[in-house]
Amino acid sequence: MRHGHTRGGPEAGTATGIRLSAPPAWMRWLPVLYVAALLVIEPVTPVDWPVSFVLVALPLVTAFAHGPVAVACATVFAVLFEGVLAGTPCCAGRPVAYLWDRHYVAAYVCTALVGALGTIVAAHRTRRERTLADLRYVAETAQRVLLRPVPRRIGNLVLGSLYLSAAAEARIGGDLYEAVRTAHGVRLLIGDVRGKGLLAVETAAALLGAFREAAHDEPDLAALARRMERSMSRRSDQLGGNETGERFVTAVFAEIPADGGRVRVVNCGHPPPLLVRPGEVLELDRGRPGPPLNLGMLVDDPYHVDEYAFRPGDLLLLYTDGVTETRDPAGEFYPLLQRMRSWGRPPPHELLERLHHDLLHHSRDRLRDDIAALAVWLPADEPSRTPAPARQAPW
Asked: Gene3D superfamilies annotated for this entry (predicted)?
């Protein structure tokens, strides 16, 4: 899953090892199709308007999808082919050859000039594509470090994750998720950092680092949320500035105990998780969400634990508001609950794959916000197994 999900066609390698997305096949074949069309039209063209003059555009047509060497070769071919057409008396009913007629000589010169321009354009485009490929590589590497893929299985739980960035060139943003096996059970986090850009990414990295450590230490889920609140407050104080109170993170913490049977949830101003069962989809919302992280000082007892039954066959879906706030061209929000009720309860990876494609279809491939989702399923045909924490090697 994206992570996981990428779009585009085949890729071409670069000297630095970064791979460039290859243009579509029709664009690569466009110069050939262009010349073929001229060959079809030329014989029926009146002598006073030979179509061979249109070959002057061949270098620019080639520059759309090919590099400077290919454009230079196309320029040489265009000039030679113009000469062949001009020097062949039978073409377009010409009684004599016009190889050195001044109009044709002007066409040769214009084609050469346009070819030089096309070569420069192709070289510039190739450099820009390599720069963009480098940036995407760095972003994807940072994403793998920050949002590492969750395990496909933790004990008897099956997990899946989805991440979609609104900016295709960025591939990373302020949405986050994590799943950690601890002595207290499997602990889950999904969150959405206020704002965009590098500050949001840095805040997400700080929160994930704090969660990965504290999830093993805090025995109570509410205590874990309070510790994350203190961590975000310290970070906000370190950053300083006039917007300290506006730097917050909405989040949901969930815990599936080792003995199973239930799921505990602490909601910090985030969209409530969905519990999917055969025949029903429930919002896990009892009407008492806590404030977002870094705003807990506004409430005396900010974080409460809600507990729900989590039986074999159930699926838990945590998601960010980018899912429900995705709009279609008419401005209609994405109907997540309606979609989930119509899909039944597929396994996590199939569910997230379907959600991914449906969001792109609903928005006409124009996402306006980052999207993250985390799905956890307890298969009905497996007995409960205690997901013990990972042991450290003695060395």
From this structure: PPM-type phosphatase domain
